Fold this sequence. Notes:
CATH superfamily of the largest domain: Glycosidases
Distance between the termini: 81 Å
Largest sheet: 8 strands, parallel, barrel
Number of helices: 16
Helix content: 10-25%
Strand order of the largest sheet: 12-13-16-17-20-21-22-23
CATH architecture of the largest domain: Alpha-Beta Barrel
Radius of gyration: 27 Å
Amino acid sequence: MSYSFSNLDFVKPELGASFVGTGTHFAVFSAHAEQIELCLFSEDGKQELQRLALPHREGDIWSGYLEGVKPGTVYGYRAHGAYRPEEGLRFNPNKLLLDPYAMQLQGALTWDDALHGYTIGAENGDLSFDERDSAPFMLKGVVQDPDFDWDGDEAIRRPWTDTIIYEAHVRGLTMLNPHVPDALRGTFLGMCSDPILDHLQRLGITAIELLPVQSFIDDRYLVDKGLRNYWGYQPLGFFAPQPRFMSSERITEFKTMVRRFHEAGIEVIMDVVYNHTAEGSELGPTLSFRGLDNLSYYRPSPESPRYTFDTTGTGNTLNVAHPMVLRMVLDSLRYWVGTMHIDGFRFDLASTLGRENPDFDREGTFFNAIKQDPMLSGVKLIAEPWDIGHGGYQVGGFPTPFREWNDKYRDTVRCFWKKDEGQTADLAARLAGSSQQFNHSGRTASSSINLLSAHDGFTLADIVSYNEKHNEANGEDNQDGHSNNHSHNLGAEGPTDDADINAARVQRRRNMIATLMLSQGVPMLLGGDELGNTQYGNNNAYCQDNEIGWTHWDAADDAFIDFCHSIVEVRRNHPALRQDTFDTGEPNDDGLHDIAWFREDGQRMEDDDWKQNGRRFLSVYKSNIRDVENFDTSFDQVLIVINGGAETSFTLPTIDGVSEWSCIFDSNLSDRKNDGNHDKTIPIAADSLAVFVPWTGS
């Protein structure tokens, strides 16, 4: 069937392919193109059926309406214009281009030299011009009907103070779970299957943070080595779910996943990558943005527009300061919230999004656009607060309503429990919400996303099992990944049959998880850490879509899962541990305290105590006095005791009318029953953590 554009003056404001009931409106941005062609393909994407020049241009938006074109139609674009790479212009109509707004992808990218706008191997390199057609090797877009029966599904919008995040990978979490049906493993439907939901509910998880699920590609150098892009940090389509995670060609599978998570009371947060694309440097392929308008979509190098500016380590930096690129990012975010019902986002290398001319600006265009947007400002927003560019490390530097991954928290907790000296004062700061970083500009005490581990680095089990990284399987001579992991193997590198070492490792994991859940801020648990999952010492499993990167359910430590659940319950039951208000340490008008620190003898910590490098003991009293209105019904008091050294005695303090305490949690798994602790001085086991509450006499 042959199509032709309607002569009607039918122009929609939306970019992308918009099905309107009887046909489809196509619109794409390019400021420097001279002509844009729409290419229609057979259902399998193998045969190009028709090319039509988009007839309408208003400003830099090219558009046209095709009557009769319905959902399921496969399409792409070709852009005509100047090819002057030395000026940053790289138009080559021989290259089929993916619509940046495509909501579903068809086929798979097959690496071939024809995907490049220049001729690989040519004497003049990227200044050459390649005439081969890239369509046979390219992904294509698919026209979508966004309608879906959400069956009353609504956003949960749980307060940050009640949030516990679980970072996980769709394939990694499901591929080895024996209770997930074989056909659903590695997919969105497997991710929302009953075995996964039951496990998360058992733990007490309130939000799942998915590693990238927007469409991405496998790097050519990985494919050549027989590996693939596992984590997904090479995005190509900001609106389309990754086809690898679907068991069919229906993107409704993603919506089904979100709806089922919501039914289980769990919010869905997406890890999104708007700082760069998969096209790489000027030597990379021409797949979409580069071919549509290289000068607009990417930041050019100050040296020459021929080169791309790189603050991400991937070869390019998306030019979010450009109004139309900013619009694309905001449209993408709104699409995932409005159409896909996503509850929030974690922004990869978020410092890049705040760069203008080219330094980081917390009042920059991107942040101001988010803050004024009624849809986006109300969802959960998390920044990875760094990139590799000058001035890119910005922990504590982001504006509201953003929360931030806090690597200072991660490093301090690791260092304290592996017995580095001089960590006690820093640990106290982390327990109190890292106020030095976040207590400014009206930010709340839930601004810090506290983590022990994440996809990037050692798992919790590997933190206590390996002194060194073991990334040989990545094929980079173990040169990739961080070398300073603040890890400690407790006496043997990797697995061991030594019972004492294994017991010490479990105890240290318990102490670290307990510290995480008892700290002010928002805790994030790496998926699998509650199981004792290992990556065999690989701390950069970005290319390991196999048993190195997947979660090992068969080796799950049920006792440790129960332990994690118990400390999550302690956090949930005690609002003093999860407040919006930073502690001051000063008594209120009634003489009550929000926080106080104690030594082993039950006396207040003094300045000299904090300066003792060898100090391994710390006790903190916390209450929610600043967050409550009615002391009788909502005043909560908790005493946390942390001992990172040898067994010691602790004299329970008297504070705010409490002189007798009852132990509700002990990481040493003792059967301590204090019943008021009338003796006042009690033993605290070596390398342990305990929680006390006021004794009620029962």
